[in-house]
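Hi Y.,

Following your request, here is the sequence exactly as I used it, all 462 residues.
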Amino acid sequence: MIAIIGGGVSGALTAFHLIQQRVNARVFVIEPRAQLGFGLAYSTPTLRHLLNVPAGKISAFPAEPEHFLQWLRTHYDPQATAATFAPRAVFGRYISSLMATVRGVEQVQAEVVSYRDAKPGAVLTLSDGATLWADLVVLATGNFAPAPLHGITDTARATGAYAHDAWGAATYSKLDPDSGVTLIGTGLTGVDVLLRLREAGHRGTITAISRHGVFPKHHAAYEPSLDCAIPDGTTPTCLEYLRALRQVIRNGVAWRAAIDSLRATTNDLWMELPRHEQVRFRRHLQRRWDVVRHRMAPSIADVIEAELAAGTLILREGRLAGVENHASGAIVMIRKGGVLETIKTGRVINCTGPNMNYRGVDSALLQNLFAQGLASSGALGGGFHTTRLGALIGADGKISEKLFNLGPGRLGTLLESIAIPELRMQAVEMAALLADRLKSNSSEDSLLMATCPHLTKSEQAA
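Below is the corresponding structure, written out as tokens. Let me know if you'd prefer a different format.
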């Protein structure tokens, strides 16, 4: 029996491919949401939130690049082209529709709160008190809430002047439509929040604050003109990689073409960097990379540019120093250099993106895994330490034979592990890996566990 914890895109596609391979095991997906395939990103309530990859490049199947485009034309937009940026919620429907075509995936609507090794497999304790026995376990838990921000007063939190959850309904309720709103973070989460605020009828000025004071770049057409901007044999240092990239751009290659040419080799290039060079990249180049790599759909970029031009969106560079409650909302303190500035605003929203410090996230399961030493942090302190194919590496350096991960958790080892092109390949590879592992581990005990994996409290006692 295979237990997949999380039913977003990563978990759903892994289950789908396991069934397609006719794996000789029961496949369970443990997901509290009623529908599989949506997850946090694709369960957004607004159609203004668009994919940041065009329809011709985001198929769920690596071998069928137009699969999503064909589905999109049939089920949502007959006029869609390969360059169409579809709503994220529609993509969630697409993944969910794939799950509806397979038989054999069993869903448990609960959360997993603990994991225990048990020969020959493992025992998962669920939030409803039941247990689930499994031969193999896949963590497809997706993204977690952002890390806590320093300097936020308890009063600001309690009154709602500060909203930690950019996706929660409460963040957008009881807000004066003409009051100011301050966003902490100018990445794609900040862009999403602005779009949702405007759709909800908010008219006030929005101030976006980040250390670098820049929004992501936008997609634009270009003519592919090279295989890879960083050729084989380049010395694996940040400086040499940057020099190679700049050289091809100076030679006339469009910068978007140069960046996208690295897509197939990004993780290989990253893994070749020595540890101190990876640290250097995180410190000096990560944000620059994110700005050009994770780009906005053109229509969304048009909205951002129009708001900036009209003065209804203000971009501020600086570090957050604190948030205090105020009679009309909150006072935000920003530090730039040695200067401390203050802004009065109606509400402050944390848009800093998911917390990658997995030791500190609000997850009973992850706390349990780290406490047992079954999971360890990535080399730079975030995500999970895993093998290239996703097997967890424990605190003792031992590679797990039962516990695997795909999706954002692999950012502890890789540089790219959140976009659909990476997730779909991970799902295909994970399904093949698990199928092979089951063949090699088959035994009477594992077959017995597969016949009665889900036990209630009374059944446990029996």
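The CA atoms of residues 138 and 196 lie 33 Å apart.

Thanks again,
Q.
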